């Protein structure tokens, strides 16, 4: 088969979606020696990907996401390669691409959190953009030969929103976390010193979009801080409008000991996870929820919102709380601080939980989806 993969999101810099795309391709190189692959990349990540399998070929597709160029010129380029199947790892499938394709749906956050508060756009432009996104998602799901969901929760969410008829073409392939990496104690302590972090501290890693629920997290932290004044909270994420707005909330409520970090390397993040008292993940909606698994891989206990997806992915390896209740978040933080036995138990369970997930297995299952479509000719 001649298979194309839209890898314009390729790379760690794009976080969740970029990591998924990168790990899928790297592991398909390991598990598939038969099919021929064409990897479509933007100029900014073209040199980042270096094929290690002769059946994988790079193609420049320098069309930005969610643009007219993506919708008009990208499908023209794809048709030149006479593909038997195209895989779009995100819902932004060009509406003028009419050959066979599969799509990966990571979540339906846009449908559940459609308010203007989620955008920096003017309300009128946001509504236009929102309805355009809804149309593109609906069209992708309707026309895809198969749909890959990254959790059972996401699969159920797709069925609930797009009808039972699509269920038969949905396959679940779980993501995975990075391999465990431990730095030397000296290096770790130096990294903490570099960023002004003093133990004990909680760590959150991710963006600050409204559904991530960070406003409640910082307010809960403020309550805990009244009883444990030496405690810190490290928030690791990209500097943007949403983190700027969160800083305003912190300032207005006069909450101390919160450290905002960005541009942290994976090596540094390993150490920040390792030395934290716990990773706290208060999100109100997730399609998979990768950061808590990555924290577990580094030996950090996890406390998380009790969102159904997080219970599915984390099992009994995390302490759960009601993400909509500030007092519940605060109590979970207090409990993990005071109960050393609980922390040790969660660390042990975390190491076992991450063994259930494998990028190689995900790639094998994805390859099987490709080949099942070919057999259905």
Note the main attributes of this structure:
globular, 15% strand, 7-stranded parallel beta sheet, alpha/beta, Rossmann fold, 377 residues, 6-stranded parallel beta sheet
Class computed from helices, strands and strand pairing: alpha/beta
Order of helices and strands: EHEHEHEEHHEHEHEHEHEHEHEHEHHH
**What is the helix fraction of residues, given as a range?**
40-55%
Task: Quote the CATH topology of the largest domain.
Answer: Rossmann fold
Low confidence ranges:
none
CATH architecture of the largest domain: 3-Layer(aba) Sandwich
- Average of the residue pLDDT scores: 92
Secondary-structure map:
Blueprint: E1 2-6, H1 15-31, E2 36-41, H2 43-46, E3 56-60, H3 68-79, E4 85-88, E5 101-105, H4 109-112, H5 123-143, E6 146-149, H6 152-162, E7 170-172, H7 185-194, E8 201-205, H8 214-225, E9 232-236, H9 241-252, E10 258-261, H10 266-275, E11 278-281, H11 290-297, E12 302-305, H12 308-314, E13 319-321, H13 326-338, H14 340-354, H15 359-375
Structural account:
By secondary structure, the chain is α/β, with parallel strands linked by helices. The chain has two domains: 2-176 and 358-375, Glycogen Phosphorylase B (Rossmann fold, 3-Layer(aba) Sandwich), CATH 3.40.50.2000; 185-354, Glycogen Phosphorylase B (Rossmann fold, 3-Layer(aba) Sandwich), CATH 3.40.50. The protein is built from 15 helices and 13 strands. The chain has helices at 15-31, 43-46, 68-79, 109-112, 123-143, 152-162, 185-194, 214-225, 241-252, 266-275, 290-297, 308-314, 326-338, 340-354, 359-375; strands spanning 2-6, 36-41, 56-60, 85-88, 101-105, 146-149, 170-172, 201-205, 232-236, 258-261, 278-281, 302-305, 319-321. The strands form two sheets. The chain has a seven-stranded parallel sheet, sandwiched between helices. Helix 2 (43-46) links the parallel strand 2 and strand 3 (56-60). Helix 7 (185-194) crosses helix 10 (266-275). The longest helix has 21 residues, at 123-143. It starts with a strand and ends with a helix. The relative contact order is 0.12.
């Amino acid at each position: 088969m001649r298979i194309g993969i839209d890898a314009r999101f390729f790379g760690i810099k794009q976080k969740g979606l970029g990591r998924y795309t990168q790990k899928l391709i790297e592991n398909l190189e390991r598990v598939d020696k038969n099919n021929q692959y064409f990897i479509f990349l933007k100029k900014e990540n073209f040199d980042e990907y270096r094929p290690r399998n002769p059946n994988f070929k790079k193609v420049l597709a320098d069309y930005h996401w969610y643009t007219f160029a993506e919708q008009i010129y990208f499908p023209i380029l794809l048709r030149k390669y006479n593909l038997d199947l195209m895989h779009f790892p995100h819902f932004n499938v060009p509406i003028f691409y009419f050959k066979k394709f599969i799509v990966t749906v990571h979540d339906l956050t846009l449908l559940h959190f459609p308010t203007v508060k989620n955008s920096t756009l003017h309300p009128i432009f946001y509504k236009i953009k929102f309805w355009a996104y809804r149309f593109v998602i609906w069209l992708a799901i309707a026309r895809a030969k198969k749909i890959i969901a990254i959790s059972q929760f996401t699969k159920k969410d797709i069925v609930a929103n797009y009808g039972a008829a699509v269920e038969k073409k949905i396959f679940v392939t779980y993501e995975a976390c990075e391999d465990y990496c431990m730095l030397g104690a000296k290096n770790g302590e130096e990294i903490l010193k570099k960023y002004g972090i003093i133990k004990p501290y909680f760590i959150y890693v991710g963006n600050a979009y409204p559904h991530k629920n960070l406003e409640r997290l910082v307010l809960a932290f403020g309550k805990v801080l009244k009883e444990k004044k030496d405690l810190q909270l490290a928030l690791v994420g990209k500097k943007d409008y949403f983190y700027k707005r969160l800083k305003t909330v912190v300032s207005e409520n006069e909450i101390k000991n919160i450290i905002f970090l960005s541009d942290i390397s994976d090596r540094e993040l390993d150490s920040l996870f390792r030395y934290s008292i716990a990773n706290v993940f208060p999100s109100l909606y997730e399609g998979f929820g990768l950061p808590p698994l990555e924290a577990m891989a580094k030996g950090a206990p996890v406390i998380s919102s009790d969102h159904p997806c997080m219970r599915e992915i984390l099992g009994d390896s995390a302490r759960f709380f009601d993400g909509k209740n500030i007092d519940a978040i605060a109590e979970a933080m207090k409990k993990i601080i005071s109960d050393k036995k609980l922390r040790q138990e969660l660390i042990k369970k975390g190491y076992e939980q991450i063994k259930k997930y494998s990028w190689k297995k995900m790639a094998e299952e994805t390859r099987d989806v490709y080949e099942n479509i070919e057999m259905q000719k």
